[in-house]
Amino acid sequence: MKRLGIILCEVFEEEMLHLLQKNEIFDKVIIVDNESSKYFQLVLENNFPLEKIKIARELCSTRFLKREHPLEIVLYVLPFYLHTSPAEIKNQVVNASKEIEKHIDKLVLFYGLCGNSLSDIENLLRDNRLRIPVTILLDEKKEVVDDCICALLGSREEYANELYKEGGTWFMTLGWSRHWDKIAKERAEMLGPEHMEELARKLGIKKLDGLENLKIIFDHTKYKRLLALELGFEDNTEYKAKCEDFASCLDLGLCYRKGTLKLLENTIKESIKDL
Q1: When comparing pLDDT for 84 and 199, which is higher?
Q2: CA angle at residue 196 from 242 to 238, to 5 degrees?
Q3: Which of 2, 45, 103, 104 can pair with 275 through a Cys bridge, CB separation 3.0 to 4.6 Å?
Q4: For the chain, what is the largest distance between any 2 Cα atoms, rounded to a whole number of angstroms?
Q5: Strands (E), 20-127
Q6: Which phi-psi region, left, alpha or beta, contains residue 69 (left: φ > 0; alpha: ψ -120 to 50)?
Q7: Strand 2-9 to strand 106-110: parallel, antiparallel, or no bridges (unpaired)?
Q8: pLDDT, the chain, mean
Q9: What is the value of pTM for the model shown?
Q10: Cα separation of 229 and 258, whole Å?
Q11: 27 by DSSP, 3-state: which?
Q12: What are the residues whose beta carbons fall under 8 Å from the beta carbon of 233, sequence distance 6 or more?
């Protein structure tokens, strides 16, 4: 009986759900119970037979999470807002890896460099005596992807092409459209309430909330274009409405392009072969 473990950011929830539904590889889907996984737990329960799902509320001992099927997957969801803190994202990835280590045979990190925050993550895990094989997201040239956007574009080359095509591009994905408010809140907290209020007065903004926080933050950037990735399985009506609201509020030109799940899918399949 084999187990693959995946640590993923909240930004990949919809993509992970689609991959699990499409491939039907795993006999059991186990999700670690934490605050960041609450939404995904509901999504799994609404899309899979209950006997195929298990909520892991205790990871201290293997006897609480016995292996029952030929191939199982353990999912550990981490908060979206970790993008704002290199030190915190490292700590949480390392802690999560150590927590599920004893329950899996191989670990996949659904992360890229994330602004170079995780450039040394494999060495860091080795220093923390992680004893199982670890894979991070790599493109076809075996280069670590820059971030979640890069992964959904398929390669660092495609990412660079879009950045060079038009400077000042902000990317949107399903996950970003769902969780942008969390990172807006975190960045506002980093600036501090007094600084945010001062910036709001300069812009004539009376209420600090939601998109208004991002509007203040974006005022000092040079973003011009919102490029939304379409993966083909999303609810386009809801997704496009969110993209249009985002672009309108921040005064960005909006365009779309096709994304891909090939890199994520191939990473899972290759990792299973190595079990």
Answers
A1: 84
A2: 5
A3: 2
A4: 61
A5: 28-32, 53-56, 71-78, 106-110
A6: beta
A7: parallel
A8: 86
A9: 0.89
A10: 6
A11: coil
A12: 14, 18
Q: What is the DSSP string of 157-216?
A: HHHHHHHHHSSSEEEE-HHHHHHHHHHHHHHHHHH-HHHHHHHHHHHT-----THHHHHH
Distance of CA 20 to the CA centre of its chain: 16
Instruction: Tell me the percentage of the chain whose pLDDT exceeds 90.
Output: 55
Grouping H, G, I as helix, E, B as strand and the rest as coil, residue 87 is helix
Instruction: Tell me how many helices (H) and strands (E) the chain has.
Output: 11, 9
Q: Is 59 helix (H, G, I), strand (E, B) or coil?
A: coil
Examine the pLDDT at 53 and tell me if it is beyond 90: yes
Q: Which pLDDT score, from 0 to 100, does residue 253 have? A: 93
pLDDT at 204 (0 to 100): 58
Tell me the domains of the chain and their CATH numbers: 2-139+262-273 (3.40.50), 157-258 (no CATH)
Long-range contact list for 208-212, CB < 8 A, 24+ apart?
210/181, 210/184, 211/184, 211/245, 211/246, 211/249, 211/250, 212/249
